[in-house]
TrEMBL record, chain A:
Keywords: Endoplasmic reticulum, Membrane, Transmembrane, Transmembrane helix
Source organism phylogeny: Eukaryota, Metazoa, Chordata, Craniata, Vertebrata
Designated name of the protein: Dolichyl-diphosphooligosaccharide--protein glycosyltransferase subunit DAD1
GO cellular component, one term: oligosaccharyltransferase complex
Pathway per the UniProt entry: Protein modification; protein glycosylation
Organism: Falco tinnunculus
TrEMBL record, chain B:
Domain Ribophorin II N-terminal: 31-265
Pathway(s) the chain acts in: Protein modification; protein glycosylation
Keyword set includes Nucleotidyltransferase: no
Protein function: Subunit of the oligosaccharyl transferase (OST) complex that catalyzes the initial transfer of a defined glycan (Glc(3)Man(9)GlcNAc(2) in eukaryotes) from the lipid carrier dolichol-pyrophosphate to an asparagine residue within an Asn-X-Ser/Thr consensus motif in nascent polypeptide chains, the first step in protein N-glycosylation. N-glycosylation occurs cotranslationally and the complex associates with the Sec61 complex at the channel-forming translocon complex that mediates protein translocation across the endoplasmic reticulum (ER). All subunits are required for a maximal enzyme activity.
Keywords carried by this UniProt record: Endoplasmic reticulum, Membrane, Signal, Transmembrane, Transmembrane helix
Subunit structure: Component of the oligosaccharyltransferase (OST) complex. OST exists in two different complex forms which contain common core subunits RPN1, RPN2, OST48, OST4, DAD1 and TMEM258, either STT3A or STT3B as catalytic subunits, and form-specific accessory subunits. STT3A complex assembly occurs through the formation of 3 subcomplexes. Subcomplex 1 contains RPN1 and TMEM258, subcomplex 2 contains the STT3A-specific subunits STT3A, DC2/OSTC, and KCP2 as well as the core subunit OST4, and subcomplex 3 contains RPN2, DAD1, and OST48.
Range of residues in the leader sequence: 1-24
Claim: Transferase is one of the keywords in the record: no
Ribophorin II C-terminal domain mapped to chain residues: 532-630
Family, per entry: Belongs to the SWP1 family.
Organism expressing this protein natively: Falco tinnunculus (Common kestrel)
GO biological process, one term: protein N-linked glycosylation
Entry protein name: Dolichyl-diphosphooligosaccharide--protein glycosyltransferase subunit 2
């Protein structure tokens, strides 16, 4: 991901300008495939955060359910990040033997195992 | 009966065993006169057959008792013997030998039958019965042949009963034959006995076998003239086991115990001695003589023995009060006047030895003897002591068993005090009995409070009642109390309960109690309600439903973002592998749902394996096709770039 790291000059405006610059670069420089994946990652993140917030607010009564849901979110996020790294064309040099199709197959397989365990634990 | 005697002795012997470890065991069981009567009754049943007749006649003979009607017994045997059976002939022969004046003639066929049975091919029981029958009828017998047949069979039949029968058989054979091989079997059998708690020794086959063994071993040893290879402790343990059986279910059991009793009281080597006190083992001024019954196992007095006291030590101070004194024989019991040495009251350990015959075993006995005395109370002073010490205490002397006249008071300014001395009436020495209690009994409410009077250094007993200290014991109930003095001890012949005086006890008013209720321990207690586990606190359903809806909102966001980014499925190729892959994947997700609701892990794994396999193969194919397409596209684009560069 091409991100220009601008040095903040100490005023709030520069933070805002860095963020804006980042968004622009992101929008233009990232292949749409990766953007799709990023949207998925955002979704998983929000789901996990909402679950955690609920648990903090209301109580951990069926603790196993909370754990399984939260870990499902965390695990999916991690697997998604792995997939993103592996299919990013800029990282092609580091993943010579792993084609994007192979990465996707690994992603599906790992998710299956993760969700098998999650469903076992959710109760 | 004198049952406490042996028990006391066993207890004393065992405790000495713990300390010394080398002291001999004391017999714990014997045949008392009552046991003997029971045994006789068991044996004196009317004869059912020749075997029963044998058990009765020979058993009673071992006890030294003759059969009631010998002639009838003789006729019974003669009419019931079966001349074709070796066993029947054996029983008949042995019974006839025990009866006096009973003759029977033996035909040649019977003799041939018996002689033929003495061979290596017959069992040991057959050989035993044949040899016994030949010997009982007085017929000649080839001892050497019998011995070799016996030895040959012994190597084949290893069980205990067979070996015992071999011992019996050998006792009928001539002494010229070399019976040492059979005699050695006694030692082997002793090794096979089971030791039960160090007190009993018996075969696992039972008491009957053990008793038969003892009888056979002594019979053979007497016949051969060698001492049986059994140690004194083993003999006593065997005795304990055999004579522990007091009820006999079968005639053969009674017979075996009778034979064992007979052999243990009349053999050439070992005579166990039983020493039992006649009555309780206690002496006092009224009963100064200690009487001992010294008998053999069948409770027959051994009047020829000389009984000696080795030493008598006080149990508490271990000082020897008497030693090396002989008991005198008076009728059937041995006596010793112990009070001649004027012993102080208490318990004494006696060590007694019985001599006079080299065969005596278990002849050193430990006995615990109690010396009792009478107590007298002297110098009984009742006084009321003023707490401020301003008035001199008023003391009244009382003499037992009179009661003090007048009332004594104990209240907030006065304490009540009692002092007395206890002496041994016969010797004048001071006594410290175990129980010296002062009991105060409220005449109105029935309450009683008991205190212990303690002796001071000069052995004067003192008791003081301070109302302020003792109000909890009394529940602050004021009133007239009767004062009793209770003196008791195991060595006192005259325990004392003496109403000494009446005491008026007054407690301060503010502590006046409500009516005293007797504490009833046996009313129903309050019921305990079981607290079931409280269910966990849950949020209201509204909240959780709201959250469920909320959690779906990121999904909505995802879809919107995807549409915005332009994700589409325009590249979807309807190849069969693609369809199979997507169906399989959907099925796997469906399986997850079904797993959540219904299945267990094993079933799920089974289905997952099938679906996963299909999905994997289809997916592999699909992704491979995509890869090929991608590589082709990349190559063509590279080619195009290359061309434009050129």
């Amino acid at each position: 991901m091409s991100g220009a790291a601008g040095s903040g000059a100490g005023s709030a405006g520069s933070v805002g300008s860095v963020v804006r610059r980042f968004l622009v670069e992101y929008g233009s420089g990232t292949p749409s495939r990766l953007k799709v994946l990023d949207a998925y990652l955002l979704y998983v993140l929000l789901t996990g955060a909402l679950q955690f917030g609920y648990c903090l607010g209301v109580g951990t009564f069926p603790f196993n359910s909370f754990l399984s849901g939260f870990i499902s979110a965390v695990g999916s996020f991690i697997l998604g990040v792995c997939l993103r790294i592996q299919i990013n064309p800029q990282n092609k040099g580091e993943f010579q033997g792993i084609s994007p199709e192979r990465a996707f197959a690994d992603f599906l397989f790992a998710n299956t195992i993760l969700h098998l365990v999650v469903i076992n634990f959710v109760g | 009966m004198a049952v406490p005697g042996p028990r006391l002795r066993v207890a004393a012997a065992l405790s000495v065993l713990l300390l010394a470890g080398a002291q001999a065991l004391a017999p714990s069981h014997r045949l008392t006169a009552r046991d003997l009567a029971r045994l006789r009754a068991a044996l004196e049943r009317p004869f059912a057959d020749v075997q029963a007749a044998f058990y009765s006649i020979v058993g009673l003979g071992s006890l030294g008792v003759r059969v009631a009607d010998e002639k009838a017994a003789c006729n019974f045997i003669k009419s019931h013997v079966d001349s074709s059976s070796v066993d029947s002939l054996f029983y008949a022969a042995q019974s006839i030998q025990a009866l006096s004046g009973c003759e029977v003639t033996i035909s040649n066929e019977t003799r041939e039958l018996l002689l033929a049975a003495v061979s290596e091919d017959s069992s040991i029981t057959q050989i035993f019965h044949a040899v016994g029958a030949l010997s009982g009828f007085g017929l000649p017998l080839a001892s050497q042949e019998a011995l070799s047949a016996l030895t040959a069979r012994l190597s084949k039949e290893e069980n205990v009963l067979a070996t015992i029968q071999a011992l019996e058989t050998a006792s009928y054979l001539s002494q010229q034959a070399d019976l040492s091989g059979i005699v050695e079997e006694i030692e082997d059998l002793v090794a096979r006995l089971d030791d039960l708690g160090g007190v009993y020794l018996q075969f696992e086959e039972g008491i009957e076998t053990t008793a038969l063994f003892v009888a056979a071993a002594y019979k053979l040893s007497d016949h051969v003239g060698t001492e049986p290879a059994m140690k004194e402790d083993q003999i006593i343990q065997l005795m304990n086991a055999i004579f522990s059986k007091k009820n006999f279910e079968t005639l053969s059991e009674a017979f075996s115990v009778a034979c064992a009793a007979g052999s243990l009281s009349r053999n050439r080597y070992h005579l166990p001695v039983i020493v039992v006190p006649d009555g309780p083992a206690a002496v006092s001024h009224h009963q100064p003589v200690l009487r001992l019954q010294v008998t053999n196992v069948m409770s027959q007095p051994l009047t020829q023995a000389s009984v000696k006291l080795d030493y008598a030590k006080s149990a508490s101070s271990k000082a020897t009060v008497l030693q090396q004194t002989a008991f005198t024989l008076s009728g059937d019991v041995f006596e010793l006047n112990f009070m001649n040495v004027k012993p102080a009251s208490g318990y004494y350990d006696f060590s007694i030895s019985v001599d006079g015959d080299k065969r005596f075993i278990a002849n050193k006995v430990e006995l615990k003897v109690k010396v009792s005395t009478e107590v007298g109370i002297t110098n009984v002073d009742l006084s009321t002591v003023d707490k401020d010490q301003s008035i001199a205490p008023k003391t009244t002397r009382v003499a037992y068993p009179a009661k003090a006249k007048g009332l004594f008071t104990a209240d907030s300014h006065q304490n009540f005090a009692l002092s007395f001395q206890l002496i041994d009436v016969n010797s004048g020495a001071e006594l410290i009995p175990h129980q010296t209690f002062v009991r105060l009994h409220n005449q109105k409410t029935g309450q009683e409070v008991v205190f212990v009077a303690e002796p001071d250094s000069k052995n004067v007993y003192k008791f003081e009642l301070d109302t302020s200290e003792r109000k909890t014991e009394f529940d602050s109930a004021s009133g007239t109390y009767t004062l009793y003095l209770i003196i008791g001890d195991a060595t006192l012949e005259n325990p004392i309960l003496w109403n000494v005086a009446d005491v008026v006890i007054t407690f301060p008013e503010e502590d006046a109690p409500s009516t005293v209720q007797s504490k009833d321990l046996f009313v129903p207690k309050p019921e305990i309600q079981h607290l079931f586990r409280e269910p966990e606190k849950r949020p209201p359903t509204v909240v959780s439903n709201t959250f469920t809806a909320l959690i779906l909102s990121p999904l909505l966001l995802l879809l919107i973002l995807w549409i915005k980014i332009g994700a589409n499925i325009s590249n979807f190729s309807f190849a069969p592998s693609t369809i199979v892959f997507h169906m399989g994947h959907a099925a796997m997700l469906g399986l997850m749902y079904v797993y959540w609701t219904q299945l267990n892990m094993f079933q799920t794994l089974k289905y997952l394996a099938i679906l996963g396999g299909i999905t994997f193969l289809a997916g592999n194919r699909m992704l491979a096709q995509k890869a090929v397409k991608r590589i082709a596209a990349e190559q063509s684009s590279r080619l195009a770039k290359y061309r434009t560069l050129r």
